[in-house]
Amino acid sequence: MTESGGTIVKRSFTIGMRSDNLAGDAERRVPIQLERKYWMRRKITGPGKCRKVLCAAAASMLLMSVGCSMRTPSRQEAPEQVQYTKAQIMIVATTERNRYEQVYTDRIWDAVMENGETFEEYLLDEIRIFMENLKTMTLLAQDRGITLSSGEQDKIRRLARNYYSELSRAEIEYMGTTEEDVAVVYQDYYIANKVVEELTAGVDLEVSDSEAKVITIRRVCLPDRETAEAMRGRLLQEGSDFETEARSLTGSTPPEEMIGRGEEPAPLEEAAFALASGEISEVIQLEDGFWLVQCVSDYEMDATRERKNQIYKERKNWAFQQIYGQFQTEHKVSIPDEVWAEISFEGGEESETSDFFALYQEEFGW
């Protein structure tokens, strides 16, 4: 705990998207929506006190198509000034503030990152980067001649009207926004998504069922091969079950776990994925002991489908970064400090709106 009573948390999670396995600048985040891994639930133990926060409603995340933590490389010349107004930025800022408070309560703002900054400072910094990258994406669209059809513009205006009509007077006054402001942010967000789709169309992103496959296992680690072989021998006899045997030797019942390829040490992965449902592996020797694996289910359909989608988006992520990274380096943008100085989470106690991105996801699905 800090002297102020805030929880110290590591700056190890991102808001709305992952940035794994990226080429190039490790600080840069790639503009593709990456959803939470279905088979790897993370337990949240307190405000900001999680290993990685990958929130359930991907559509309401700060980032869907534009990486909120995609850091701009060091700037050698004056960046282009981003022409977003305070009201337009406050649409995103208010959405994220309310979304976090609804999940963690207002205690989240007392959380302190391991580098000493508050969670509020961290989140505002991420929002600023998001808005700058959103503008960079619109510049890329202009550069590639990607525009909106009249039908797309009509849908965006209708969505903006629907969102704005649900705002209370207090929320409108707090954000200082108009329906036109809402339409501007929705339009740029749609263009950013469209840029990703069009510039990665034709890239081979196919994911095989084998590489996406998710299975469910139980496993136990034993101190020596003799103990492991003896347990395996008993399991091959009728009337013996994995949970009981493991509990008698270790004092705890091994939980069911979903795993995908590339997540476990190679010997354990190879053994586990070779099993059919109900089968027991040979003894697997790893650095930390001797393992036995029971295959509970050799194919988790829903989790495999979601992991396949995850891998697909990661590949699209990487493919798009090859284009976007260079463009971002050559077209630096920045929100003027005088504009950003007006952005904060202060006030707006009556504001509860948090569905700006969720409504977009419902309408467009990307």
Features:
366 residues; alpha/beta; Chitinase A, domain 3; 2 domains; 4-stranded antiparallel beta sheet; two-stranded parallel ribbon; 12 helices; 8 strands; 9% strand; disordered N terminus
Structure report:
This protein is α/β, with parallel strands linked by helices and 366 residues long. The chain folds into two domains: 209 residues, no CATH class; 85 residues, Chitinase A, domain 3, CATH 3.10.50.40. Helix content is 45%, strand content 9%. The strands form three sheets. A four-stranded antiparallel β-sheet has the order 5-4-7-6, with helices on both faces. Strands 1-3 form a two-stranded parallel sheet. The protein has a two-stranded parallel ribbon with strand order 2-8. Helix 2 crosses helix 5. The protein starts with 7 loop residues before the first strand and ends with a helix. The N terminus is likely disordered.
